[in-house]
Amino acid sequence: MTTERIFNHWGIGLAQVQDGRITSVNPYPDDRDPSAINSNIPGSLHGAARVLNPAIRKGWLERQGVAPNGERGRDEFVEVSWDVALDLIAGELQRVKDSHGNEGIYAGSYGWSSAGRFHHAQSQLKRFLNCFGGAVTSQGNYSYNAAMGMMPYIVGPYRQHIKEATRWPVIARHGELVVMFGGMAARNMQVSDGGISQHRMKDNLAACRENGVRFVNISPHRGDLSGEAEWLAPTPGSDVAIMMGMAHHLITKGLHDQGFLDRYTTGFAQFQSHLMGEDGTPPKDADWAEARSGVAAERLRSLAEEMARHRTMISVAAGVQRTDYGEQPLWMAMTLAAMLGQIGLPGGGYVVGYAVNGNIGAVDRPFRWGSFPQGDNPVKTTLPVAMISDMLLNPGASYDYHGQRKVFPDARIVWWAGGNPFHHHQDLNRLRAAFQRPDTVIVNEINWTSSARHADIVLPVAATEERRDIGGGQSDNALIPMNPVTRPPGQARVEYDIYTDLASRLGIAEAFTEGRGAEDWLKLRWSDTFAAAKDHGIDLPQWQEFMAGAPVEVVDPAPEMVFLKDFRDDPVANPLPTPSGKLEIFSETLAGFGLADCRGHASYFPPRDEVAGDIGPLYMVSGQPKTRLHSQLDNGAYSMSHKIKGREPVLIHPRDAAERGIADGDIVELHNPRGRCLAGAVVTEDIRQGVVFLWTGAWFDPDFDHPHHRDRHGNPNTLTHDQRSSSLTQSPASHSAMVELSRFDGEPPAVTVHDQPKLARSNQAHD
Ligand SMILES: Nc1nc2c(c(=O)[nH]1)N[C@H]1C(S)=C(S)[C@@H](COP(=O)(O)OP(=O)(O)OC[C@H]3O[C@@H](n4cnc5c(=O)[nH]c(N)nc54)[C@H](O)[C@@H]3O)O[C@H]1N2
Ligand SMILES: Nc1nc2c(c(=O)[nH]1)N[C@H]1C(S)=C(S)[C@@H](COP(=O)(O)OP(=O)(O)OC[C@H]3O[C@@H](n4cnc5c(=O)[nH]c(N)nc54)[C@H](O)[C@@H]3O)O[C@H]1N2
Ligand SMILES: [Mo]
């Protein structure tokens, strides 16, 4: 038995390794608040769902590369050798390139993949395809796409905002009140993209409370903020109404900061006329807000006064913008914060996206770590990431995007590496229909996820613990040597080697490898990182020493960061990168687009399912799971320990449960016109009445014997709609869905997706 350090998106762990297998993962002693997600690893890495051999869908093999025969997601697979699989892929890539051009290849391939600077699945795939003439890629993400699209019009680039978020120790020292829309879930701060070396947020929040900072959690789920806090529980999608109700009260009481509005913003007058109902719409007072949100008008008025009288930080969770019209709460939060006049002061103003990872407002990296160069993509067509089904179902059709008309490409090949669309995308039944359209779907996977099952060609790949890499989170201040602790099972391989072999078949090996093996690339990336560190006055160890040593912590560049401080200090010398150089409470640009779903100032639009009237009556939110990262490690022990009879838990209020004869621990069926799934009921007062909460990420497990192909496992995206936040940013809106729920009696069908699919061995003697 040996103890080996491992590193993942959720942190460092100490793996116990025996006979080449990880038997357990213990907390890393230097991490103040280590994540239990690591304890999933033994069961998942060595679990029954590993993809062990290259596999080809039977119906596709019989037709080879033309329109699919059989049904993707339902067919059985034939296991083949690497030579057979790679010959088939090379032939298919060449055929599509010759007949459709590289625009016929979609490699948007959204997803989190794994930690590690070199073996990053999307970078590997993109470099390979760029050497082959390129492919259509995706734009944006599922996390905070509405913010990335919206903020440049009204404040400035959103990714920059994340780096510039006011630091929590600053709030602890200067803040008095933190008002959080969507809370700041401790469960979400376990994770950071590319890895987190130290979990600091528990200490940061404790320091705030010790200093008397007060928290208000405005969220349908009490658990979105741990520790002492006031909980106001609105219906989902009503945040703009709540903020407007408070803004109206500030004006009525003369508590808004006109001096700040005059100096730092543009267009307040137009907004004010809308707010007060002087433009022919109703006045947006606190009573109007109560009718839309269910939060008592009296409390909205008193809270607005407290916010005006205390140093107040307004925080908007990313989940709040992953909704119908999700751009609007962002605009309204900025507007409300501008009215309070505290933007740019320590502990005041607003921040969007605290808790999107465990490092925001906690730490940052001083420079970019070295990464695997992707090269240039000759194909310029991109797809807004959440339009995958729209594109596959409507090639050649047009759509709106940032005030322009764009056209969907005709994707004949879809290639996914490092993401799980059959967990992450909305309306999975529609996605299933969309995935029947291309000629060929290729998925590189560790496990037989539902996405792998919807492919034609599945390539088995190595996981983080099975390869050598340099660890460095996107916003973390440590570099972590990542040595393999076990070997890939079956025929699984690292992706770099797969693409190298494929590149040889296509005559692009030299371009792809530049004559280097994986180890050569790692050394090269370390020398880039080493040199960049030197430029910042930081001495890193040499390569061998680094890989043999402990994590290396480097300096945090901005521990005293206050969001928009420079702009506040001198708005003339430091204008914002908006057309006016100021905060745009009214935007001429956006008004000029003439969109019905995003106007010239922040506006309230009720959620679409609420307006439809015949969907529901329960709101469903589907936040990130505590026990895993999205769908990753769903079959591990920690994730499984929270399931109910093998189903994903759904939180339901006692009165909603009683009305439906549901008891804690019952199996329930969630349904709406879009789909159905089973789940396990958790009856709790921590959820607002009228709302249910189903965790995201249970592997989709459609039951083809059921007339509605009901998901046996509990993936919320069987129920979400596939409409975008708005035609401005075309962002996902997964938190805006309504459902009905009923008790499921009898023996529920077994969940099958954690096992192998139906596999046959090739009898075609290819191998
Ligand atoms: N209803 C609902 N849906 C949501 C959300 C929500 O709030 N509600 N949240 C959305 C958000 S914010 C996000 S970011 C997405 C997340 O969606 P994804 O990022 O797609 O989710 P993951 O489960 O992280 O999927 C990563 C997949 O990559 C595989 N993988 C890991 N490492 C490697 C590797 O090295 N190579 C290869 N080839 N594969 C690898 C894993 O096995 C896993 O299947 O989900 C979105 N979907
Ligand atoms: N353990 C773990 N941590 C993670 C992840 C994971 O999968 N597992 N995923 C990571 C990723 S990719 C991301 S993007 C971040 C996501 O970070 P967030 O976006 O902050 O997380 P969510 O869980 O989607 O949403 C937060 C909360 O918003 C509330 N909410 C939903 N709709 C509304 C609404 O209309 N109004 C209000 N006021 N509240 C609402 C829900 O109750 C939900 O719990 O988390 C990251 N952290
Ligand atoms: Mo995300």
Explained architecture:
Helix content is 30%, strand content 17%. With 767 residues, it is α/β, with parallel strands linked by helices. It has a domain at 145-365 and 560-593: Dimethylsulfoxide Reductase, domain 2 (3-Layer(aba) Sandwich), CATH 3.40.228.10. The protein has a 7-stranded mixed sheet. A 6-stranded mixed barrel has the order 24-28-25-27-26-29. Strand 8 (177-181), helix 8 and strand 9 form a beta-alpha-beta unit. The two termini are 37 Å apart. The model has no long low-confidence stretch (mean pLDDT 97). Residues 142-143 line the site of molybdenum atom.
Structural topology:
Layout (H helix, E strand, L loop, with lengths): L1 E7 L2 E8 L2 E7 L13 H5 L9 E3 H6 L13 E3 L2 H19 L4 E2 L14 H11 L5 E3 L5 H10 L3 H6 L4 H7 L2 E5 L19 H10 L3 E5 L11 E3 L6 H14 L5 H7 E2 L1 H8 L10 H8 L3 H13 L2 E5 L1 H4 L5 H14 L8 E4 L29 E3 L3 H6 L4 E4 L2 E4 L5 E5 L3 H4 L3 H7 L5 E6 L4 H4 L3 E4 L8 E3 L6 E5 L12 H11 L3 H5 L4 H18 L7 H6 L3 E2 L11 H5 L13 E2 L3 H6 L14 H5 L5 E4 L15 H5 L7 E4 L1 H6 L7 E6 L2 E9 L7 E4 L42 E7 L15 E3 L6
Parallel strand pairs: 5-30, 6-17, 7-14, 8-9, 8-12, 9-10, 11-23, 12-13, 17-18, 18-19, 24-28, 25-27
Antiparallel strand pairs: 1-2, 2-3, 4-5, 4-19, 15-16, 20-21, 21-22, 24-29, 25-28, 26-27, 26-29
